[in-house]
Fold these 2 entries.
Entry 1:
Amino acid sequence: MLKLIIFGPPSAGKGTQAQRLSERYGIPQIATGDLLRDAVAKQTPLGAKIKSYLDSGRLGPDDLIVQLISDRVSKPDCAGGYILDGFPRTMGQARELDKMAEVDIVLNIVVDMERLVERAIGRRTCGQCAAVYHVSFNPPKAPGVCDKCGSGLIQRDDDKEDTVRNRLRIYMEQTAPLLEHFRMNDNLVDIDGSKGIDGVFDQMVEAIERVRA
Ligand code: ADP
Ligand code: ZN
């Protein structure tokens, strides 16, 4: 059983690492943003409620997000653990999570502001399988085409520069304070996110092996 949180500001590399850790440890990546975007695309009742929040880069209401996650972690594929990517994002969500599960480790990706903007602006995502690329730092083999499934890559609406800066500001105000909460739970590990994708991954695996030992 292995339960992880990948934490950090928007476009720090959470999704990229969660995807790799999911393959390495055989546990699902629970990407809150993908679940929400999926709900919007499928026009579910939750999706209709959440659309305006996503479009503006604001956080969705805690009760909806918590419901979404608690449904997801009770699915059978989560029996051996899971990777939370993009949850919790507020103190309210963190308190609900504490009631729901005991997380083994919180991996906090530390990256400076300008790198974050650069990563967000160059991000490209597969419309089909949600694989994540970067035009310079992690380009697909053929431009605009997903290596994994061959579908077209898209730029997310919320990866425009001013939305990115807005999301970073919201992170600083509402999400960064959770670090104190995790530090109290004594399961927080800082990861140097200025390294390349492999360098970040190696640090994470090392930290996970340490808590499992
Ligand atoms: P998050 O899930 O935290 O928003 P992503 O995993 O989507 O972040 O990564 C944001 C962008 O930065 C993507 O384009 C990704 O390819 C790129 N990226 C991720 N990790 C690194 C890294 N260590 N170095 C350079 N670019 C990275
Ligand atoms: Zn794909």
Note: The beta strands are 2-7, 29-31, 81-85, 105-110, 123-126, 132-134, 153-154, 188-192.
Entry 2:
Amino acid sequence: MIRLKTPTEVEEIRRSAGLVADTLEYLGPHVQPGVTTRELDRLAEAFIRQNGGVPSFLGYRGYKYSICASVNDEVVHGLPGPRALKEGDVISIDVGVYRNGFHGDAARTFPVGPIRLDAQKLLDVTRESLMRGVAQVKSGARLGDVSAAIQAHAEHHGFSVVRSLVGHGIGRDLHEDPQIPNFGRAGVGVVLKTGMVLAIEPMVNAGGWEVETLEDGWTVVSADSSLAAHFEHTVAVTEDGPDILSLPTTRGR
Ligand code: MF3
Ligand code: CO
């Protein structure tokens, strides 16, 4: 069952998702060679709480951290820990914020210092795949339009989209209906309606689309150990098109 949000509820999600975006902006300059993923987790949790939010992921299905920190071939759900980032790594940071009854969710893949040209291309293509999916969002469009736009751009550049993990509706719960695959056919699937709020999140591998989960029960890696990227926005459906809720707040904090 897809829960439609009132305009007031959409504004609450904008506040939560805005804090998510500000947290990612805040973390950006800390993503440097030598920093550990645990330090990034601590910084994120403190920033979220100082700004009146609660980390959505902390305690979710027993998850013990405030962010997911996925390095290189780790696709999503990487666990923060003592690993220090090295020049040339890429790190996907996923952040969720709960505040006043509503969640926001967003992710970005950051370069650690200078990175290889092929790695930078994967990041650029995955971000652009997200934005092409987002651009399809409009009342009356189909969910398959979003999925197909994401897949087409990633595959056009020779990359693969992960099949087994999807985006999702978001609101009072972190994960609501509908599921949003990052592959599919235009013109099919759920008809989008004003008041739907979607977390769209392509996960793209430089190699094959197959993934595996590590022994820790969380970390998802590419099966062929190829580099992976992940970008996510929380987006509201309107008559006029997409309303991206996970944008940094302009006034700062
Ligand atoms: N942001 C992830 C998603 O969109 C959630 C991470 S799972 C958690 O599904 F356990 F870390 F919360
Ligand atoms: Co999500």
Note: The longest strand covers residues 90-99.
